[in-house]
Amino acid sequence: MPRRFVSERRRDPYYRAAQREGLRSRAAFKLAYLDERFGLFRPGARVLDLGAAPGGWSLVARDRVGARGAVVAVDLRAIEPIDGVEVVRGRVGDSRLIERLGRRRFDVVLSDMAPRVSGAYATDHARSAALVREALDLARVALAPRGAFVAKVFDGDLVDALETEIAASFDQVRRTKPPASREPSSELYFVARGFRPAPAAGGESRAPDATRPTTAM
Ligand SMILES: C[S@@+](CC[C@H](N)C(=O)[O-])C[C@H]1O[C@@H](n2cnc3c(N)ncnc32)[C@H](O)[C@@H]1O
């Protein structure tokens, strides 16, 4: 790890607070902010957390939905076990993941997924946007009616089109940048509420769009 990154991280108040509070990642503060601002979680809710490693968001979600709720954490990477959280190792965008999740319906689908950063901004933005589409496809299958969807994207010229795609399935979409997002960072979050499932037309009309290419990771 570059020395400059390590010393910047030590000075980062969110990183230090996350260490102190056993939160696994500074990202946990972003989800706490989103919940406080948009009221995402209620006791007993079922949450699907995409791109969950190392588990900061899952811990926040678990604590907020309580023992009657459920949290399923999905990532390409291994996640150390978390009490009260079901961990599924897999790639969002792989149709076998939908089979593994079964026919469960979730009240909230979260995506904090990020591509491996190349440093070429246009490439990273396009990859990040592709991950939002993968998460949205999965959310359209897995969300219960009126459910909520949260997704991170690296800001750029595809954001308006993504918002339009999300808005097609929800009553309301907002863009926000939590204070814990690093200042120069270009990330933002979509928060969509009031999921409206597509009307069933002779069977499984809620399957993901098979014509869309999968994300190359
Ligand atoms: C910023 S980290 C998530 C941090 C997490 N929210 C937390 O609070 O600990 C982004 C994660 O997205 C995961 N990821 C990226 N693409 C993915 C994909 N297609 N399927 C599953 N996970 C993916 C990465 O492996 C990485 O762990």
Q: Would you identify the CATH H-level superfamily?
A: Vaccinia Virus protein VP39
Give me the secondary-structure category: alpha/beta
The total beta strand count reads 7
Helix percent reads 25-40%
Annotation field: number of helices = 7
Q: What is the string of SSEs from the N terminus onward?
A: HHHEHEEHEHEHEE
Compute the gyration radius: what is it?
17 Å
Give the distinct bound molecules.
Answer: S-adenosylmethionine
Give the DSSP E fraction (strand runs of 2 or more residues).
15-25%
CATH topology: Rossmann fold
Net shape:
globular
CATH hierarchy class name: Alpha Beta
Give the name of the CATH architecture.
3-Layer(aba) Sandwich
Set down the secondary structure blueprint.
Elements: H1 3-11, H2 13-20, H3 27-38, E1 46-50, H4 56-65, E2 70-75, E3 85-89, H5 95-101, E4 106-111, H6 121-142, E5 143-154, H7 159-167, E6 170-176, E7 187-195
Parallel strand pairs: 1-2, 1-4, 2-3, 4-5
Antiparallel strand pairs: 5-7, 6-7
Helix pairs in contact: 3-4
The protein binds S-adenosylmethionine.
Task: Note down, in words, how this protein is organized.
The structure is a single chain. The chain is α/β, with parallel strands linked by helices. It has a single domain (25-195), classed as Vaccinia Virus protein VP39 (Rossmann fold). 35% of the residues lie in helices and 23% in strands. The protein has helices at 3-11, 13-20, 27-38, 56-65, 95-101, 121-142, 159-167, and strands at 46-50, 70-75, 85-89, 106-111, 143-154, 170-176, 187-195. It has a 7-stranded mixed beta sheet with strand order 3-2-1-4-5-7-6, sandwiched between helices. α3 runs parallel beside α4 (56-65). The longest helix is centred in the middle third of the chain and has 22 residues, at 121-142. The two termini are 22 Å apart. Mean pLDDT is 87; it is low at 205-217. The site of S-adenosylmethionine has 24 residues, from α3, α4 and β2.
